[in-house]
Sequence to fold (232 residues):
Amino acid sequence: MKGFMLIKSSPYIVGLLLACAAVLTGCGHANIEKGDTSLRLGDYPAAIKFFSAELQRRPDCYPARLGLAKAVFQKSVDEHIDLTLWKEGLMHLEAARTVAPAEEEENVTALLSEAWVYHARALLAAADTVGALADLSRAIEYNPRSVEPLNLAGILYFQLGDAQKSIALFERAAAIDSTSPSAHFNLGMVHWQQGDIRSAHGHWLTALKLAPADEDILYWFALAEKNIREME
Fold:
C-alpha cells in the first residue's frame, strides 16, 4: 500500500469494546458483574466462563453476549489475532446486536463495523485481499459513514485495477469527513497514477491545507508542482 495514506485505526479495538457499558436488565447480575470484573483484571478465561454460564441460562441476555464478545476478542488479540477466535467474537457481537435494547443498538453496530475493519486488516496481513474486501463491505454496511473502511477498500480496489471504484470510494469518504486529508491524498495518488497531474495537484493541495506538516503530502504536492511548472 506504499504511496497511499491509511487512516489510523484504534490500535486496540478491545478498548472500544470495553468502553461499551453492559446493560443488566433481565439477566443474572452476579455472573455479569463477575464477568465484567474479570475483564477489567485481564482474566479472559474467567470472563468467558462467567458470561458463558449466564448464556446457558439466558441465551438472549444482551450483556452476556456483549461481554463474551469482549472476552473472546481480547483473547484473540493476546494470541496475535487468532482468526478463529475473532470470528467467534464477531458471532457473539452480531448476536448481541440482535437482542440489544434500542438505545444500545447503534453502539453495537458501530462496534461491529470496527470489528470487521480490524478483521480485514488481519486478513491483509495474511495476504488475503479478497477476504479483506468482503470484510470491508460488511463494515461499510454496518456503518456507511465510517471513512476508514471506505479508505482502505479504495486502496485495495485500486491495487486490483479498478480505478473508478477506487475514486468513488475515496470521494465518498471525502464527502463524509471534510477534515480528513487521507481521502484527498489518495484521490491525488489515483489521478497521479492515471497521468492526470493537475487533478492530483488539486487534491494534494486540499490535503496539505488539512495537514500542513505531513511529510508525505508535502513531498507529493511538491512533485506535482514541479511537473506542472515543467509542462508550462
Remarks:
- Residues 110-178 form a domain with the Serine Threonine Protein Phosphatase 5, Tetratricopeptide repeat fold (CATH 1.25.40.10).
- The chain has three domains: 11-100, 110-178, 179-232.
- Residues 179 and 210 are 6 Å apart (CA to CA).
- The first helix runs from residue 13 to 19.
